[in-house]
Amino acid sequence: MTRHSRAYFRRKTGQIVSSIVAEAKGLHAEFGRQYSARSRWHFRQPSLVLLCCRVKVKRVHLDIDGRSMDANLVNRSDLLLIPPDTEVSGEFDIEGVSDYSVTFLDRSLFGRLNPELKRPLVVSSNDALRRGLVELSREAAAPDNVFDLFAEGWAMQAMAHLSRLAGRHHSNREISRGGLSGESLRRVQDYIHSNLPATLTLVELSRVAGLSRRHFLRAFGESVGDTPLGYVRTLRIEEAKRRLSQGSQSITEVALDCGFSHAQHFATTFRRVTGLTPSAFRRLCLS
């Protein structure tokens, strides 16, 4: 898929399974599902670009305006925010079927925004933006005569959220190589994956990293953009999505296998993160 407009272009590789496109004033959004062991993105656009991947990602590498860097989006639902006129090349190694959304927000929506939006950022998990993307996707799948108004309103809200988030250093981070070393981060991530159904504490995770709790908490947040326990919660939700989409386990079994103490806690957390109940998510996948 390639789009050209003078200095602007967009290319993406990967086998697309399905896609939904939303178009409104100041907004172009695409919601897709693809199957590919590796996906590559390369683009420069006049719009602010918001990329969200809901996928089991084994490795992510980015080149942004010629600077090579890692975004540490492993098994996350983080939002990659790219300013206008920025050339980005990204390579994602994925496992199985991936869900993603890419949203282009026009300059006309910017207004008086936080200057942080002029730099590439990885915005740590934000329930309001994620829920908004899920709702926009549902609306785009069956647009009615007020869809344009809905999409334009969503775009303005999204810009307000992004501008606010970009000014909060505890919620966002500039893409960097700081924080935990690559080896320590991989060790902690491997430990979390191996023990996802178990109770995981800050004490044991800091011990795996070989750091004090205070140092580990700061370094992990700088590397991943979330607290360790928030990161664990997101992994559990992503694993639950995978199991629910397969349709072979009961919701209670999924909850317990993903480390939730009981089905009600799982249902409440799942709905808060995704905007859907586990049963509604399963029906959506199976349909």
Distance between the termini: 26 Å
- What structural class do you assign from the helix and strand content? alpha+beta
Characterize the overall form. Answer: globular
**How many individual β-strands?**
13
Overall mean confidence score, pLDDT: 77
Corresponding CATH architecture of the largest domain: Sandwich
Instruction: Briefly note the CATH topology name of the largest domain.
Output: Jelly Rolls
Tally the helices: what do you get?
9
Number of domains: 2
Strand order of the largest sheet: 3-4-11-6-9-12-13
> What is the CATH class designation of the largest domain?
Mainly Beta
Q: How big a fraction of the residues is strand?
A: 25-35%
Rounded radius of gyration (Å): 19 Å
For this entry, give a set of tags:
287 residues; alpha+beta; Jelly Rolls; Arc Repressor Mutant, subunit A; 2 domains; seven-stranded antiparallel sheet; six-stranded antiparallel sheet; 9 helices; disordered N terminus
